[in-house]
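Hey, weird one. I pasted the Replication-associated recombination protein A sequence into the form twice and got a warning about non-standard characters only the second time. First submission, copied straight from the form history:
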Amino acid sequence: MNNEPLAYRMRPQTIDEIAGQQHVIGKDTALYKMIINGHVPSMLLYGDPGVGKTSLAFAIAGTTKLPFVALNATKAGKKDVEEVVADARLTGKVILFLDEIHRFNKLQQDTLLPHVENGSIVLIGATTENPFHDVNPAIRSRCGEIKQLKRLTSEDVDLLLERALEDPVKGLGNIAIDMSIEQRKKIADAANGDARKALTLLESTIFASFEEDGVTKVEDSILDSLVDRVGVFGDKKGSHFYNLLSALQKSVRGSDTDAALYYLAHLLENGDLVAVSRRLLVMSYEDIGLANPSIGPQVLAAIQSAERLGLPEARIPLANAVVLMCLSEKSNSAYSALDTAIASIHQGKTGDIPNHLKDTHYSGAKDLGHGGYIYPHDHKIGTFGGWVNQTYLPNNLIGSKFYNPIEAGEEKRLSAIYNRLEKFKTEK
């Protein structure tokens, strides 16, 4: 049997063999029609590992029959780029596939970009990172197409597995294999949309199974043990990790407990307890806020417990914190008010501090006109404590409103106090 990995051997040869990604390369898309007509634009392919970025680049080259060179930006140097440029002079147009393009350095860029501009080199860059964050603007400006590839569905992956089992040349079709449809679909589900992972798992399963009477029989126990070893998708500091953090916060904000727990599970399986804890603490004040002020200390206690416990036990207090936040009343009024005040300052809306609020703890303060502050604690107002009607904002900002209370949870009570005090200000 071919010593090359199954995932490599099963790489599609033309764009018609691509599984999934119909929004990018389906027969009705402009990109498909351009490639069929022999025109390949420079492009960036952005997506999670295993969704087919490299496969699509190879399939485009196979469809157009153009010369094709694959480099990895983490390893390629200026000499590699110059060789591609030299080949382009000899052969005409060359497709350069550059994996990990977000690591493209300036020297490589300066060598390559003029040739991308004049059309002698077609650049297909692939990245797992958001190109608008991590790819140099000079590269983006020269790539007419920026395509985000989606994770494959279980049905897409199952189709790839079926092809691999039936193909006698590139796949496993020359081996008699006894594998049920249910077993195949278990692999497809376990791969979590990663075609490379699915084909690797299939290959491992076949070679871990026993042959009897010329037939390789797949046992459930073998398959289950391999599926359990399949790593959770995502790296700790890549775009997908930050997308998970974003999805967690937005699910909590939207009070969807099940979705929030799902994203928390993903994040904890990736193992970065510090980043998850930090985001949860921010959420307790940003999204719950004054509606339930007790949540902040509760989440902090959960985080401290998680840090003391470490994973996997850390998941227990953090799960409690997430459920509490999901089902709590919510308000973002406090930090929104502060952001409004900050924006006001940036807009130049500033003024001199009233003299009665300025520091008077030094000789000469009175000579500067500082003083006249009325001590609120000396003026009791019911059970509230002390309050006195005096000016606190600069004169040119009097009447400015930054805080807009939300009638939710504990903030409903705070809102009533705020509105009552605002009314007091207008009373003579």
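That's the output from the first submission. The warning seems to come from a hidden character in my clipboard, not from the data itself. Residues 306 and 314 are 4 Å apart (CA to CA).
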